[in-house]
Amino acid sequence: MLSIYFFGLCGLVILITLYCWIVKGWCAAVEIIECVPNFSTSDPKVVEQILNEIKRARNVFLLDYTFDDYYSRLVVSFVGDKKSVVEAAVNACAKAAELIDMRKHKGQHPRLGAVDVVPFIPISNVTLEECVELAKEFGEKLAERCSVPVYLYGLAAANATRGDLDWIREGEYEKLGELIVKPGREPDFGPAKFMPKFGAAIVGARKVMAGFNVNIGTADLKVAKKIAKALHGHKGGFANVKAMAAFIPEKNICQIGMSVNDFEKTPLYRVFELLKVECERYNIPIAGSEFCGLAPLKSLIDISAYYLKIDNLTEDRVLEIAVQNAMEKGGAFE
Amino acid sequence: MLSIYFFGLCGLVILITLYCWIVKGWCAAVEIIECVPNFSTSDPKVVEQILNEIKRARNVFLLDYTFDDYYSRLVVSFVGDKKSVVEAAVNACAKAAELIDMRKHKGQHPRLGAVDVVPFIPISNVTLEECVELAKEFGEKLAERCSVPVYLYGLAAANATRGDLDWIREGEYEKLGELIVKPGREPDFGPAKFMPKFGAAIVGARKVMAGFNVNIGTADLKVAKKIAKALHGHKGGFANVKAMAAFIPEKNICQIGMSVNDFEKTPLYRVFELLKVECERYNIPIAGSEFCGLAPLKSLIDISAYYLKIDNLTEDRVLEIAVQNAMEKGGAFE
Q: Residue A22: what pLDDT?
């Protein structure tokens, strides 16, 4: 009888040890993908229902969301493992397809449909190539589930022309009916026909980017558009920057909305300083700025290092990251 | 026989569930204390042996260390749980007491002994008050183990006068023999007498601070000292700043070395801009700057927010921190 207890105990110890080893090993290599879908709505009730699809998903965490009337656009950020992120994204986008009617949509941000753009972003233990595959998997599922056209953009697209967001969004939703039936302009998934309620979705993979908006002290949208043009890559500005101008009625000023794709090559301080230079030409003051979505740490490091002329600043020399790395490395805190 | 297996299996499931619950609960509330001892040495062999005491400690992680000849000072940063941090700190300081001879020490940084200052800093799930207790425990242990005088500073000290680093370090090591025997100047632990080889140690607890050094384009230490004075809290500068000037022979310029204690109240951009103003008076350019030790994230946020006029920047809106928080909160990634 004693020997049964003894062997039982030994077995238990072995099992727990194995369990710890497996779980710890698995945790250390946990894959994290971020998804940042953009929806064409600023209706709080619609926003809530879309967010609920993400909140109720398993193994998925809602990180951030913002929406405003002048863009009439909801930007959501969430993370999770591959399978869970795709599933949550499909559910959220299907909800958007159900609730948003593009025939009634007005907003200052260029958009092609109810689900305007859905990028998958590698955060840890995932490659950009794997995110390209995820984007394709997601695009196919969304097209099937909702019977809507889906374009692939960026690295997920068949070629560079088709991958360019500006090209895909040419003429926006309003011209989609005319363009979608043209040869070479067929979507990658779903029907090659205009769906008035939904429009079309744009899906892809990219590295972490910085969404950065600067409010400038003028109500003159024409001037603001000139300033945005000076920054926009395709129009002679910075290679990694997309910039647009919008009017903010409640503040009676304009906003330069920017996506800085490779903020390590084109750091935000440089973008900001050029924007200041262009504003000075028209004697327009900078009213303030904001990150649209989350701020990548590296972008803050580059800003700090530039203005304070700091030589030795890297991500692993930031206290919070150093502590996090130490915990992950050793696990000896357990 | 079957029932034995059945009950054994049930027991196993219950035990594993309990284990997971306890371990997860414990991990979530893991206490992290940082210790940043400053040693009066720049001898690479001594540095190595001191670092080894920290590296070989269990449940302790070395985060960072820096040392240079002109200060002749080694600054080490490591983290761990309460017990482990105190143990590693005592071992490292005992090694320093063994290897450093203050009779031969020359350096431009004010110092009282081989182990000049040892602060304990709350990082997570620990209060500042608990760190004060840790500092006292450590001070007592170090005094006992090495038979050396130990002063408590900051919040750990008996009163504000005794807690002031400038007061404790008055006249530095060179005057310690004369001052340590004066009434009211006795150490908090250990013998109230001058130990020529060791000097005295200064121990305390504080919040995270920023060590920030700015190199200025002048070889004139007298002018650099004037600039440092303009910034130093006790001399009319910023309340939370200690500033000193040092000459860096290999670069033939001077450095303003600063400790910014409450960088949320006195953000680094403000310190840097005032330093620039004072330098302009003498036509001295800023050559560059560096964090001495690790950079607290909040300090980078304040710098970025100031120069780019960012409105909505908080720690939890930094991507890396938001992801980390999500992982800790849910544990659903496991």
A: 53
